[in-house]
Design goal:
Largest sheet: 6 strands, antiparallel
Helix content: 10-25%
Low-confidence stretches: none
Radius of gyration: 23 Å
Number of helices: 10
Shape: globular
């Protein structure tokens, strides 16, 4: 699991060995025992790795590995090497730095003048840690089980292999799956992994690419809307409720239908009707932002958006004239949008954003919660908007399991199998080991 990536631009990391477990250091063909509760600084010095302890400096020709002498079969909460000030929410609106505990082996190496940090551990230990990195320990056990099976399925399908060039299976963030080591591990997530050991979702004799997001906004999205060229029969457009809400007038790809939908407050598993917003915070992951997830409003000023788009896309816009959604998916999520702008030569130009991700990345400096939006400009002088108001539905891409919806189902008494059948219709649970 990639913990620190090249894009983080770290040249040093600080760590601390546990006070109750013996660790050892491996570097340049040598293996040495480490003191307990030892403060460590690993940094790049003269193009090589240097590990500083209070007593000594160790210089490494290649990788530095730090790992326990005796590996635990099941990690304990907050066990393992403590790594400090690690990015969580990389490139997303909830980005922050946190301290995390990493079970297993921690590998530090240099990649193009920056550090990368990899956590190597058994698959099932990783899965134990994912569930409560994604959602809190207070969630019902059936949600934890459903989340665990989905996470295991996604990992074993792992179609994209985004970080293969860095010798990582996955990274630690929402780009792949959120992983914060044993920091928030608890008995419930351990039990969830053990009770579902080896269980995955299957469809047409293949492991399901079981994507999930925080909140679908009341209607889940089709896989091909977000990742064009691939269609899965188990990730479809459907209402996040037992019956289609009366407010839902499909298709939401039609602008007028979507506008009515996003301005409504339908009953859904992921809506405040099921999980009131004043109760939701206790169930969210520890790095999640507190706020409205089902329906929300954000305003961005002209200059703020202008600076962001110019920097992100390397264009020379002096004013954003219009934001026009050209295509929506079945949940109303935009996946094609035209940014009309005036450049520094007073020429009108069009910047095409051709994916849901690019739209969310481009329209808001802190990354837009969802692309299921209606856009309302506030006009100023010379027909140039002074700001843009986004009224949106949901958080995330909306494909597959809706985490807050699954929470709502679990609170209503649904079992993990029923939750997964709802979000991945036609799939079956199989035990493969």
């Amino acid at each position: 699991v990639g913990i620190v990536l090249p894009e983080d631009e770290y040249t040093s990391v600080t760590a601390k060995t546990p006070a109750d477990i013996d660790y050892q250091l491996e570097y340049s063909g040598k293996t040495l025992p480490m003191a307990r509760a030892c403060e460590l600084l690993i940094k790049i010095e003269a193009g090589k790795l240097a590990l500083h302890t209070p007593e000594k400096i160790f210089k490494a020709n290649q990788d530095i590995k730090i790992y326990p002498i005796l590996e635990l079969q099941i990690p304990q909460p907050e066990s393992g090497l403590l790594l400090k000030n690690i990015i969580s929410g990389r490139s997303f609106h909830w980005k922050k730095n946190i301290d995390i505990n990493l079970p297993g082996t921690v590998i530090v190496r240099i990649h193009e003048s920056h550090l990368i940090v990899i956590n190597e551990l058994p698959l099932e230990q990783y899965i134990m840690c994912v569930a409560t990195s994604e959602m809190s320990a207070k969630c019902p056990s059936e949600l934890i089980k459903a989340q665990t099976i989905a996470a295991r399925s996604w990992l074993l399908a792992n179609i994209e292999q985004k970080h293969r060039d860095l010798e990582m299976d996955v990274c630690n963030d929402d780009c792949c799956q959120r992983y914060q080591g044993s920091t928030f591990l608890n008995d419930q997530s351990i039990r969830g992994a053990r009770d579902t050991f080896g269980q995955i979702l299957m469809s047409n004799e293949k492991i399901c690419d079981a994507r999930y997001s925080k909140n679908c906004g009341g209607v889940t999205e089709a896989f091909e809307t977000i990742w064009p060229g691939v269609k899965h029969n188990y990730t479809v457009v459907k209402a996040d409720s037992s019956d289609d809400p009366m407010e839902w007038n499909p298709p939401l790809s039609e602008d007028n239908n979507f506008k009515r939908w996003v301005k409504s407050n339908p009953i859904a598993y992921c809506s405040p009707w099921t999980v009131p917003e004043n109760e939701l915070n206790q169930y969210l992951g520890n790095v999640d932002e507190k706020g409205a997830y089902f329906r929300w409003d954000i305003r961005v000023k002209q200059q703020e958006l202008l600076d962001h788009i110019n920097q992100l896309h390397s264009i020379d816009a002096k004013a954003i004239v219009n934001l026009e959604i050209l295509n929506r998916g079945g949940s109303g999520r935009a996946n094609r949008l035209a940014v009309e702008y005036i450049n520094t030569n007073e020429e009108r130009q069009i910047l095409l954003l051709q994916s849901e991700y690019s739209i969310r990345q481009s329209l808001y400096p802190k990354f837009l919660y969802s692309s299921a939006i209606i856009i309302t400009p506030k006009m100023g002088k010379q027909n140039i908007p002074v700001s843009f108001q986004y009224h949106g539905a949901g958080w995330g891409h909306g494909v597959g399991l809706c985490q807050i919806g699954a929470l709502g189902m679990a609170l209503k008494g649904f079992e993990a199998e029923q939750i997964l059948a709802h979000y991945y219709p036609g799939s079956v649970i199989e035990k493969i080991y």
